[in-house]
Amino acid sequence: MSLILNKINLFVVLDILIVAFLLYRIYVLLTRTRAMQLLFAIVIILVFDVISRKLHLETISWIIKNLSAYLVFGIIVLLQPELRRLVGEIGNMPIFNWINPKKIQHLDKIVEAVVELAKNQVGSLICILQDMKPEYIIERSVKLDALVSKELLLTIFYEENPLHDGAVIIEKDRVIAAACFLPVSDSPLLKTTHGARHRAAMGMAEETDAIVIVTSEETGEISIMHNGQMFSPIPKEKLKEKILELMNKKS
Question: Taking the model in full, what pTM does it have?
Answer without folding.
Answer: 0.62
